[in-house]
Automatic annotation (TrEMBL):
Recorded catalytic activity of this chain's protein: 7-[(3S)-3-amino-3-carboxypropyl]wyosine(37) in tRNA(Phe) + S-adenosyl-L-methionine = 7-[(3S)-(3-amino-3-methoxycarbonyl)propyl]wyosine(37) in tRNA(Phe) + S-adenosyl-L-homocysteine; 7-[(3S)-(3-amino-3-methoxycarbonyl)propyl]wyosine(37) in tRNA(Phe) + S-adenosyl-L-methionine + CO2 = wybutosine(37) in tRNA(Phe) + S-adenosyl-L-homocysteine + 2 H(+)
Signal peptide (from-to): none
Keyword terms: Methyltransferase, S-adenosyl-L-methionine, Transferase, tRNA processing
Domain of life assignment: Eukaryota
SUPFAM superfamilies according to UniProt: Galactose oxidase, central domain, S-adenosyl-L-methionine-dependent methyltransferases
Subunit text: Interacts with RNF144B/IBRDC2.
Protein name: tRNA wybutosine-synthesizing protein 4
Biological function: Probable S-adenosyl-L-methionine-dependent methyltransferase that acts as a component of the wybutosine biosynthesis pathway. Wybutosine is a hyper modified guanosine with a tricyclic base found at the 3'-position adjacent to the anticodon of eukaryotic phenylalanine tRNA. May methylate the carboxyl group of leucine residues to form alpha-leucine ester residues.
Root EC class: transferase
Record-stated family: Belongs to the methyltransferase superfamily. LCMT family.
GO molecular function: tRNA methyltransferase activity
GO biological process: tRNA methylation; wybutosine biosynthetic process
Amino acid sequence: SASAVSLSRQVQGTGGSSAVSKCSAAARGYIQDRFLRLLVRRRRRRAPLVHRGYYIRARAVDHCVQDFLLKTQSHPRTQILSLGAGFDSLYFRLKDMGLLHHTVVYEVDFPNVACQKATLIKRIKELSALVGDTGGEGLGVITFSGEDYKLLGVDLSELSELERSLEEAGLDNEIPTLFIAEVVLTYMENSRSDALIQWAAEHFSQACFLLYEQMHPEDPFGCVMQQHFSQLNSALHSLAQYPDCEAQQRRFFEKGWTECSIMDMNEFFTRCTPEDEQQRMQALEPFDEYEEWHLKCSHYFVLTASKGMESSWTPLLSNMTVPHCDGPVRMAGSITAVVCATHSEIPGLRRYGHHSVLIKPNVILTTGGFGEEDGQHCRMRNFHVLIKHAGYWKAGCVKKENPDKRWDERLYHTVSCLSSSLALVVGGRTSPSSAGLGMLWLKFPETSNASDPGDVTVELVSLQPAAEPAALRWRHSTTEVIFKGEKYLFLYGGRSAMEPVLGDWYFLHTQELSCTVIPVEGPVPESRHSHSACSWKGGVLIAGGLGAVEQPLGSVFFLRELEHGFQWQTVETHPPLIPRYSHTAHVHDGKLLLVGGVWFHSSSVPGITVIDLMTGLCLDYTINVERLEWPLMLHNHSSVFLPNEKELLLIGGGGNCFSFGTHLNPEPVSLSLSNILTSH
């Protein structure tokens, strides 16, 4: 039918665009593949985040394919059947590496894709030479036929036609066979993809299946991902019926496979990628989108299934001793999110990587970040203020005196209020490849009775104190501490253009902004950025963060004031805090609240965690978003806690969701925490 033809065109479009992305990743050294550029004509440089996404996909497929070839090398003949292969170069890479001594590779795709690819292979000497002289004209659906390579033009959803064509091409159902489906089956109706999975198990005596595709459609990132594919007119059909790892595994067992293992891509990267390779990849390009990378990885899985194999085929059971993240997170309850009660539309707060601070009771100043200004996505120049008056929030842009001298439109900076009329901006960045930014004073008028955003003015005063080099970092924390009755700002962690993660600290004397040496004893916390830091009892509570090799941390430390200096103390939590980063935090009444962030548990998104600092008891609460009409993405957000009302305000948040578009939380959200903070 005509609609089926246009649908197949849309799906082929996704294949073409993924080939361009793989090509871009290969050009930047993420994947070693000299054949892609011969098969893919279009050249486009993709973003580092997209390079990483295609890197992990290619690594997962190669890891499993090479494991299959290794495990079956004693067999006289084996075969690989790549479903929806598109312009993939797998055959040429394996042949070039000398791995196809007794293996035939079959590729199937839509007839027009297979014809285009066959034409390319015949035309390009480097490709046709690898297939060998016997490579020649195909017949009918077989568009290209070499001794160990057959290319077929068949619609995968027509199973009987597929079976007939493969038989004609020489596929043997009695020898070890690996089926590969890399983001292919999900574009078919479930009844048809299920039939294909079952057919493979029933008709082949020794079979292995490799599946790579999306999952978790219901959480905020999943919603953005689904919407993207629906807009492309190539909906992901598997998601509704098979939303997670358990459902996919059940699917394969029910369709006749006897062994099946599955993991999401965070787990694959951590457990099946050697650490030196992780570090090589992480150093290829300046990169600062950790949240989006980890979310992308938690929404894709790799699955391997087998049946009838002489020795079990389990490429995903790695020998690495990294704890396994399965099992749902136990929740102690839920907290309902509502859109903030405001008098007016609040433009200007759709942003992430910004900072919000209470500069006076009921007055919140938000600065920096990346977001939407005048209909454009850009680094934010405007300062923004929220004022609570008579139970409602009023919003507006702030008048800046001598603006933009040294503001530099920064992200991932901190703002610390030192008095009712003075705040200090520390660090931040413009682009991740440029050096961090230094310090800046923000001065506001003394008047405390501002009831209208128009009343608030901010004067920017640039300064280059002696302590400036300490500030050239971002994703750090600056927290007020008290030592011998004097106020200091404790500047800790973060990252810089040169160092992917920092573990050092400075005490800034707030009067003259000089670094003061104060002795610190105790176990030094591991380096981290995107952690949280709160003032408590004259010291600082540091929680979570992203550590070396981009692994989330679950440690909590208290920097405690002693007579002669400070001491690091570990705060034991039980159950142990789930490692997370890019969250915000507040202390109230002996309890540490962690808000949002990113963790590797793909079964749920972080809500609010309450740690009792006396007992170490750690309770997780989900955020109920039924009353919001849009996905609430709680990373790179800011939050302000109003202790009298026990109200938590969440401002901004979101990010660039892989290649699926940018999501910015449209409005501030309010959570009432009185239920979970009442003393039991």
